[in-house]
């Protein structure tokens, strides 16, 4: 097939998109290993079904990549002529607005420990991040990431629609806590008042009760940390809360995909992202729907940490990949 000029017709070489979609996966904090996005293996995935371990956090707005890495000149000779170049310290950031609110979106936008507000003991003192909680309920054998077995009668503590946190008791250990995803770091058991419920206060193992059997809760989505650990217990969650401040820095791998409205797909992969606390990032954006109604968007800002590319030993902070449309020109 030929065009008006007699040359072959080719598809557009310009990626055209309406929206950008965000995907995140936890970095293994013990080994500092990020989740890998391999464009050869993962690049053509359906946007609604990302490959494991990536988690779909919805469409985002105002996506902006910022590069502060400088290129320095090596000068020589009597006139100081440029004899070579070298790259200065790596400095990269990414910013955007979440348009959906959820536990992960709040945790990423907040940057520090993200708390589950456990159902409180009515006699407990009030606290901004939740007071003393009602007694946790021990899980029984057969519990999985989608089915929480509590036993006949006990299961009636929860109703369909409730949120439930499922994780092990805090046993005065130090270091990272939280099943599957590091949710906080404990330096001293006294810092968390030796609270047996502390892990469930911060865990990402939270689900929505979609149904019940005589003995078990059936969750709408699998627990992010996988099957509950041995000796885990469950507690009702009434809300989520994050704080401005805190000593813990979360770390995630980020993947941002420009939807293919026409033309090819563009992907931006950041192996390691941490909250950009120096930028005053923790804020909300007011998006007008129809006066006087506004939607609250969660503003998120991150610093990109370096990653060693094993193919050539180079340090990188971001990978940009492009998947041309069928029949598009190569150049």
Outline the structure in words:
Strands 6, 7, 8, 9, 12, 13 and 14 form a seven-stranded antiparallel beta sheet that branches. The longest helix is centred in the first third of the chain and has 8 residues, at 103-110. The chain has two domains: 20-76 and 83-111 and 249-323, no CATH class; 114-242, no CATH class. It is mainly beta and 331 residues long. The chain is 5% helix and 40% strand. The mean pLDDT is 89.
List keywords for this structure.
six-stranded antiparallel β-barrel; 3 helices; 331 residues; seven-stranded antiparallel sheet; mainly beta; globular; 5% helix; 2 domains; single chain
Please sum up the structure shown.
The protein has 331 residues and is mainly beta.
Regions with pLDDT < 50 over 5+ consecutive residues? none
Give the overall pLDDT as a whole number. 89
Round the Cα radius of gyration to an integer and report it.
24 Å
**Quantity of strands, as a count:** 21
Q: What kind of oligomer do you see?
A: single chain
List the helices and strands and how they pair.
Layout: E1 20-26, H1 39-42, E2 55-67, E3 71-76, E4 81-87, E5 92-98, H2 103-110, E6 114-118, E7 137-138, E8 147-149, E9 163-167, E10 175-177, E11 184-186, H3 198-202, E12 206-212, E13 216-219, E14 233-242, E15 252-258, E16 265-275, E17 283-290, E18 293-304, E19 307-309, E20 314-316, E21 319-323
Antiparallel strand pairs: 1-2, 1-15, 2-5, 3-4, 5-18, 6-14, 7-14, 8-13, 9-12, 9-14, 10-11, 12-13, 15-16, 16-18, 16-21, 17-18, 19-20
């Amino acid at each position: 097939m030929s065009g008006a000029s007699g040359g072959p017709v080719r598809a557009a070489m310009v990626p055209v998109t309406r929206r950008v979609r965000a995907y995140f996966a936890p970095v293994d904090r013990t080994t500092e290993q990020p989740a890998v996005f391999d464009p050869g293996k993962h690049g053509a995935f359906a946007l609604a079904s990302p490959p494991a371990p990536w988690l779909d956090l919805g469409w985002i707005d105002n996506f902006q990549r910022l590069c502060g890495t400088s290129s320095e000149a090596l000068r020589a000779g009597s006139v100081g002529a440029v004899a070579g170049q070298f790259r200065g310290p790596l400095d990269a950031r990414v910013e955007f607005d979440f348009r959906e609110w959820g536990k992960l979106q709040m945790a990423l936008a907040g940057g520090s420990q993200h708390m589950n507000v456990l159902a409180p003991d009515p006699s407990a003192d009030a606290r901004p991040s939740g007071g003393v909680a009602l007694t946790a309920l021990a899980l029984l054998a057969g519990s999985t990431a989608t089915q929480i077995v509590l036993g006949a009668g006990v299961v009636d503590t929860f109703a369909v629609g409730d949120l439930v946190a499922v994780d092990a008791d805090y046993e005065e250990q130090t270091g990272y806590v939280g099943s599957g995803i590091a949710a906080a770091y404990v330096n001293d058991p006294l810092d968390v008042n030796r609270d047996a419920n502390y892990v469930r206060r911060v865990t990402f193992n939270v689900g929505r009760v979609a149904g019940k059997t005589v003995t078990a809760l059936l969750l709408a989505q699998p627990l992010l940390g996988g099957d509950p650990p041995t000796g885990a217990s469950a507690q009702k969650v009434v809300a989520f809360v994050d704080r401005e401040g805190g000593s813990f820095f979360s770390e995630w791998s980020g993947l941002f995909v420009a939807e293919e409205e026409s033309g090819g797909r563009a992907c931006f992969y950041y192996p390691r992202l941490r909250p950009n606390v120096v930028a005053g990032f923790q804020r909300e954006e007011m998006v007008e729907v129809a006066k006087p109604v506004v939607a609250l968007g969660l503003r998120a800002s991150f610093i990109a940490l370096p990653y060693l590319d094993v193919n050539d030993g180079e340090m990188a902070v971001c990978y940009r990949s492009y998947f041309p449309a069928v029949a598009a020109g190569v150049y």
